[in-house]
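Project channel, design review

CF: Before we commit to the Perkinsus chesapeaki constructs, I'd like one complete example in the thread so the newer folks can see what an input/output pair looks like. Taking C3H1-type domain-containing protein.
RD: sounds good, go ahead.
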Amino acid sequence: MAAAPVINLSPGLKEILRKYCEDENLLSLACAVLQEEQVVQVLSFSTLSDADVSSIRKKIIAKDDSFKGKEILINTCLKSAVRDANFQADLAQATDKIVAQKDASSNQRAAAVSKMHERIEALKKAMGVKDMRANILPPISVWRKLLVALPTYVDFNTDLRNTDYAGSILPVHADPVGIFLQASDDQLPTVVQQVVPKDIADRRSREMSGTAWAACFIRYSTALLLADIEQGEGAKLSANIDVFTLWSYMMSVNVLAAKYGWSLAYDVDCAFRRLVEARCLEGAVPLREAISDTASFAQITVDKTLYGRHPSHAPAKSGADAKGESATHSKKDSKSGAKRSRANRSSGKLCYEFLATGSCKRPNCHFRHEDAAGTPAEKRPKAGPKKFIPDRLDTRDVWPHVSALVADALARAEEEWQKESSDLTDGTGIFGSLDTNFYAPSSPLLERLARTLDLEVEELLSSETGEALASWLNLSRQQQSTSSAWSDHLPVLSACADRIRIEWARLLEVNPRPAECGSPVRPLLMQAIIAELGNAVGDGCNFDLHFLDLVDKGLPLGTSGEVPRSGVWPAREYDVRDRFFPISKDLWRENYRSTADYETEVQAAISKEIALGRMSVVEPNEIHKIKAITRLGCVPSFDAEGNVKKIRVVDDLTESGCNTLIRSNVSETILLPNISAACRIAVMCKVADVGGADPLYWVESDVKSAFRQLRLSDVDSWFCCNRVGERIVRHLALPFGAVSSPLLFCRLSGLDSIIATVMLCLCSLFHRLVTYIDDRGIPVKLRFALKVALVSVLVDLICGIEPAFEKLFVSQQPHCLGFVLNLVEMTLTLSAEKLQVFTASLGGVSNQGDSVAVKDLEKLVGRLAWVSVPFKKLRPFLMPFYASLHIGKSKSLRSIKVGKALASAATFLRRFFQTEAAIPMHSLLPDMGDMHRTVLVSDACTKKIGGYVLHQFGESGNRILWYQADVTDRELSALLDKLLERENASSAIGSPEMCLLELLALVVGAAQAPRSNLVVAVTDNEACSHVIKSMRSRSTALSKLMQSLMVIRPHLAGRNLTAVHVAGEKNVLADWISRSTASEVRHRMAGVQDCEEVDIRATLHEFNESL
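CF: and here is what came back for C3H1-type domain-containing protein:
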């Protein structure tokens, strides 16, 4: 009998095989075959594929005929062992990572200790001391927190106080409290652990004592000085903080504690240091000035003594005092609870400036003026009465008064508009700002390239192709979408692009070939053009040239490694909402149901992609290369008759785990233009000299199969595999569904749009455009519309990017970023289809008590959030939607009941979208400065409302329109009845309803403004100003009035309605109009030039009808 072979397998591998091969003979044969195949380690065994397992099974059967017919048994045992080995390998790899992370954390700790020691040495040198005791040094965590931002708030009780010790010698939280650094000249800082006996720690009070606060503040001061010290040869403290400022603040807290006790002093200290953090981090004041602000410290002290004391902080009372106080409070509460509540609201907080200086310079200060002695607010000097216009009105004073008030209001409104305005970009990266002309340099070589393109375009315009395209230009937008004019002339356009490309390549001395990886893009030609543009711009610019090298070789998707940064796109911020999904390689997973519903269309789409070289079939001998299997979803689109027009197949790379990998390897994000950017370039083109007074048009273009124009690197393509029927296919082109795909294509489309911008500029055409991933929009005057469209199309074809001619339009009502731009009236609105979708969706949540699916509510909220970007005044009405959606998602509900607030908001929004729902373009661009303004000034008393409107009509000059209405007027009385829901129409208007009258006077004046004007509303009622700015109020009547204004004047839903608050002493003319009789006002205002009365009864009727 032959001796058994010596098996040199590793013990781990033997253990795994023994676990699954219960038959000793099978175990021996499996070990022998693995020994022959030199698979002797667990790691190598875990990499075996299904084909390798089949080969080992055949060799086992060949060695012993008794195992014939037991192929399934052998196969199951070996595959189970391979899976176990795979798990063991992953576990070992994870263990190595944990050890590496632990070592890295230990190294970071040591580096922090070393860095802090350097700071300690610098501080000792600056202060002129030889040694520094360890008991004043802060924990490392506190020092590092202040090193990042010096004004950061530090909680003494949790970060610095040495409490909450466990029974052992170690604290529960080892880093922040009980760890000190022992620092001396002859050694590095060493960790010294303070030990507090458990019995002493248990007896400590939970409240901060004076001694504990002083110790914490000293360590906090040391941490500030260490974080602020300037290191180097001339070590010194910077100007941010100093010891004397800290000592002064410490004395203020001690004085406060001596008067009121440490409980209140600690509360004031915490509140004040939080205020310091907020003011400094917002950039308002330096740290030294914020800590030295005695007025704020005094204000917080008063607030805490009057309102901020918790019942547990109040001193204990006993006996008759407590009993008497209880009886007194009970008596007051039973008789005048509502009166006390109103008194508290009217009193408000104390004035900071009055507390600090003893006087207040604000003319209309709404804070209480009390000194340190507690002088009540009722005894302070009251403001004088308004200075009304005398009986003998000098009409010459009206225009100077109005002009001064209007100038002040416009200046303040312009300042507010400037604050709201943000930098607008064109979608080509961080250099594509609309405030600069960065892409319009010139060089002799670029001019020769543009001249070549210009000659070819002029020749096309004079040919039969130009005549056919000119006829296409006269079609409506709907007719252009069904026309085949561009597709029919594609061979002529392609031949023209080839000639231009060859000539450009000759001038640039570059090869115009397509990408080596199979993409039709011409990376070398684009790289040469962009490089020449960079030379013309000069130093300090980055045009992402390295990306074109990646396009040539194959793009990294972010699954196998990091996507190289461009420097042209903003940095990506980490989102905590990103979920983690493990990589899935399961071949048995089914696609989504939509794929099965449209199986024929999906199979046809996959076959077409394979024929175009964008996908390939995975052969059986390549299955082991698959890194991930992705489920497919199908998104169909239908024609007017309900038939499937086309489908889009999307890969769910999130569930397969690929997007989890990509997010960790992508460090940039896209910077897309908004609708304000599109409106701005439209206005810029309208006022430009190019094209003269011709009507304004818009060129819309798109890229055909945008993401599929780019090819993936080979290693990343194995992460993008699909199972379709019996076939397994992998993507060779950029897939839909990867989080990096939009960024990668934006980097290409941005470069393509830059080339188009340069060519338009050098061809003496308006060259500003917006690029939204694969969509491009270019405003143009009519005479150059076809030429601009040809330049845009030819640049795409030259660069190897195929345009989508079915999405090419030249019209005066373009669809841009989902909105419709009316270039005739210069307004922004929604398409009829979207308006129908909005009204239908809002109808499902307009009835209180109905159930709505959380999934449908989420979709509706997304649409409303999108439309509220330009329609700014609609944003406050979305709050009930967000609240309901948050409740439904937080509780994982499938449906949720419609509440009163949600139903009310949905009803209003539905009514709004049933109107024209159009706003002027300039409502998004109030800072451009060339639009006319309307300033209205209003006021009201208990019997009348009134005011005046000043229109700016450019060359036709300005004029004043004044208005007045009595509360007994039929229309106004009916409107008040509806708003106040009162039954007795003759009831008088009291002081609580004055705010409603003030707001009514304001909105009636706003309704008189022309649609093309921006409106600035001036009022001396601060509550009205707040309602106009925030579009919401706790009062039902005020909210209904604002909703009514949005319904009858939907064009005010943008940023073109602004409120400005002025002191009552300045609002004398509107106040006089609202308090005088109509005949008296007519008599006096008749002598004022360019002044007339406007009848507001029709406007009041509109408000009545809307309610």
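RD: helpful, thanks. Residues 452 and 500 are 7 Å apart (CA to CA).
CF: Residues 71-127 form the longest helix (57 residues).
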